[in-house]
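Standup notes
- DV: blocked on the single-chain target, sequence here:
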Amino acid sequence: MTEPRRHGEPVVSVQRADASALRLRAARETPSPARAAVRETHTAVVLFVGDRAYKLKKPVDLTFLDYTTVAARRAACQREVALNRRFAPDVYLGVGEFSSPDADVPEPVVVMRRMPTERRLSHLVREGSAVDDALRDVARLLAAHHASESPSREVGKQGTRDALSSRWEASFAQVRELSEDGTAPDGVAETERLVRRYLAGREPLFDARIEEGRVVDGHGDLLAEDVFCLDDGPRVLDCLEFDDSLRYVDGLDDAAFLAMDLEQLGAPESAAFFLAEYSEYSGDPAPPSLRHHYVAYRAFVRAKVSLIQAGQGTPGAEAAAHRLITTALRHLRASAVGLTLVGGLPGSGKSTLSGALADRLGVTLLSSDRLRKELAGIPAEQSAAAAYGEGLYSPEWTNKTYAALLDRASTLLSRGESVVLDASWSDAGQREAALAMAERTHADLVALHCQVPDGTTAARLATRAPGTSDADLDVATAMAATEPPWPEAVRVDTSDSLEAAVIQALAAIRPRATSQAPVFRRPYMEPG
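- DV (later): unblocked, structure below
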């Protein structure tokens, strides 16, 4: 048997009686790293002989691909070698041929180095082996490939909000078509609602990703089964080659495929670690909401495939589909973009609670006290104390401050960033403006009203060190006299410990916290 030469050199033949005979002979042998074996997928047969693997395309027409002619199979083999050499150049040796006296035309075959099965990432994860170093190397390899891609309009258009929406909607329709009565499995209706809500308000996020060159010609099918962790670095095989548009993805979407697969292998910590490493190597400042959304997308696509397999009678496929839909739902709930208003009178502990919440949730904190002084051009710690309704606290300045606060929050929400807004929210009109902005950006609004006994307020204000807030007890008393009811807000008692208040607040913000996916954390930032 002669192996094909490197790219650019003449293709040589691999002489055998015929491919089917070789497959039959290989199937009779006990698989082992040094002996023959065979593996079959819905589009190919892979023959393992010695230190080589030979991949033949099946002569099938599956609508999304057509390999019914030798010419089509040859083109597919050549395309597979060219694309996969981007990730494993020393594994994909070239395109060879199986020829037979009975065949008019030789059969093209992808010739590869045989990888050791015991070094598959999926095998290592199932065995409980330490894989952090390997995942770090894969993240570095993937990020380096993505960085090497030159942005193009053809690739970029697949990263728009509408393109992603179309792919989601196609999957929803296909899942419903798989049911005899047109109903979808449990969880699909909520999946549809959460996906549409997220995408509806996030067009600026996806536009920014395209402008930043984040949409690339990636791998498209990054499974742990196709990653081999060798001593000299990872080899990543089997990229998606039959449809370029499905390979043109946001780099984070590409990485999310492997994160989703690691979760299905029972390694959610490894999944989160891998995405964190990818973000580090790629310098990607993507909001956690987008990471969750892409993991959910990959899980739902895999669920669709499992439902197709269930219809074909594959054992365990239906259970796998339900498990994947549950995974998608967890991440979609975690991806929901939220606007949290934390209000209350001076001395109520609202700023302390706001900071703790932003830190716990890993979201952005915006403070009216800081923003007010920023707009006035003075340092946040500089005193601007005045009587109630005067100076920087006049109605004009207050309206200007709240308008800027909501404008900044709107920009962040549209880019997938959840926000905590620290302000008194003692005016009904300002509360209504916040609600209207949340509706425009399709963000989930939760209002928290911090309250303490009057005696506690007085004691706190009497002992409070100078800071961004200038309110004293006289201001707090005047505000209390005019503050309208806030029935929509959740009352938070902040007279006890900070942790007790945080627990109350989180119960309102994330009522399904026990069923949510782990949060992709980042430190909160307070502008100004």
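- Follow-up: Residues 338-515 form a domain with the Rossmann fold fold (CATH 3.40.50.300).
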